[in-house]
Amino acid sequence: MSDLRKTSVQELLRSTDLDREVLVKGWVRTRRGNKYVQFIAVNDGSGFNSIQVVANAEQFPEEKLKADGVENGAAIAVRGRLVASQGKGQSVEIQAEEITVYGSADPTTYPLQKKGHSLEFLREIAHLRPRTNTFGAVLRIRHAMSFAIHKYFNDHGYFYIHTPIITGSDAEGAGQMFRVTTLSDTKPPLNEAGEVDYTADFFGKATNLTVSGQLEGEVAAMALGKVYTFGPTFRAENSNTARHLAEFWMIEPEVAFNDLQDNMDLAEDFLRSLVRYALEHCPDDLQFLNDQYDKELLNRLQFVVDNEFKRLTYTEAVEILKSAKQKFEFPVDWGTDLQSEHERYLVEKHFKKPVILTNYPKDIKAFYMKLDEDGRTVRAMDVLFPGIGEIIGGSQREEDMQKLTQRMQEMHVPEEDLWWYLDTRRYGSAPHAGFGLGFERLILFITGMANIRDVIPFPRFPKSAEF
Length: 467
Ligand code: 4AD
Ligand code: MG
Hints:
Shape: elongated
Number of domains: 2
Keywords: Aminoacyl-tRNA synthetase, ATP-binding, Cytoplasm, Ligase, Nucleotide-binding, Protein biosynthesis
Number of helices: 13
Mean pLDDT: 96
Order of helices and strands: HEEEHEEHHEEEEHEEHHHEHHEEEHHEH
Bound molecules: 4-amino-1,4-dioxobutan-2-aminium adenosine-5'-monophosphate, magnesium ion
Catalytic activity: tRNA(Asn) + L-asparagine + ATP = L-asparaginyl-tRNA(Asn) + AMP + diphosphate + H(+)
Low-confidence stretches: none
Enzyme class: ligase
Organism: Hymenobacter duratus
Structural class: alpha+beta
Distance between the termini: 36 Å
CATH superfamily of the largest domain: Bira Bifunctional Protein, Domain 2
Number of strands: 16
Subunit structure: Homodimer.
CATH architecture of the largest domain: 2-Layer Sandwich
């Protein structure tokens, strides 16, 4: 086997160069057959489909395959001839000449011995679930979407900014933060007031994991014009829902001289082009998810590509919700934050398309959003998607120093922590806007999966950080 180079399964399945010797390496998905012939499906992760290896029983009797450990889950190498397939379901197959087992998988204990495990069970074996059809598909789509995001921004002249993960400012107010410290668990130094003395900590001040890269993104936009961040963010909220994680990835573009209109145009073009990319580049994985989990998936994706989003103000949305025939668990009134049931009513029942809501009451939004002329609302925008609710949150930012600091005082945001952020308004301030797209919420939408814990390799949520 030594001088022959291995070929990926996807490359072999696409090959038209037949009747040649090939070498493939991967994991056994299934082995079946009879006393004349054994069929081994080998998958190396390169794509959704496995390649069929045909092992003639004269050379490879079932008993010998079993004794050698050629069982579901085993890692093997197969040397053989690539030939046109006699059977249905594949165009080529390999007639085995030599099979080497790298690592067997004991069929009496291997957790994925049988197919059809529930997603809940698979969550408990997050280290093995990438070997299933479902998670292979989700993880390849996740990769394709990260690539498409970088490609979109690169093609449109944006610069990728690496914003910090450990932050000394806990002022954005986007959610509860995780403390980062190297102080002793049992005997931290205390100050005169009896509180933990963080001046003795690693950074000389209290630090946390970031909830968003936006504020640093704004700093970069005031120099490079068009920037984006794409990194992990952390929120210690106790939200045990199918749409919240404690550690999730967020994409945050920030653009100098953009207003709310430009921001909406960017969000819409960006999302539509990502969905289009998935349809063009992940057809096998999407088809599987469509057939297995959600028969409307491909239609829904195509619908988003083909149709413009509905844009309306928060105030208009509240009117629609108040006159809706549907009973909501949470009442709607001007000034209250919309719940996911309200967002989904607007998207799924009323408009039946993605919706962008704008101009929310200032009291339910962050301090940095630009105040509208009426003094009651801000230039916020949330993009709401079918099955998801909020997928993007963003705004035009307040560029006026006076108005910004006034909002900070009203909302008890400490100015001294954000002196560097305020310098952007002090020196060469300019109108600008940006938004945050929750990466896992995007992947939920693209894959049609129902739970956000199933679209990230190792989900972090309350009481769960095993892997
Ligand atoms: O609306 P959010 O909190 O906005 C911000 O953090 C702004 N700083 C973004 C900006 O303007 N640059 O979060 C943005 C998006 C949400 O729309 C949602 O998709 C996602 O991040 N998100 C979560 N995703 C998973 N788990 C959570 N706990 C999430 N919280 C927010
Ligand atoms: Mg939000």
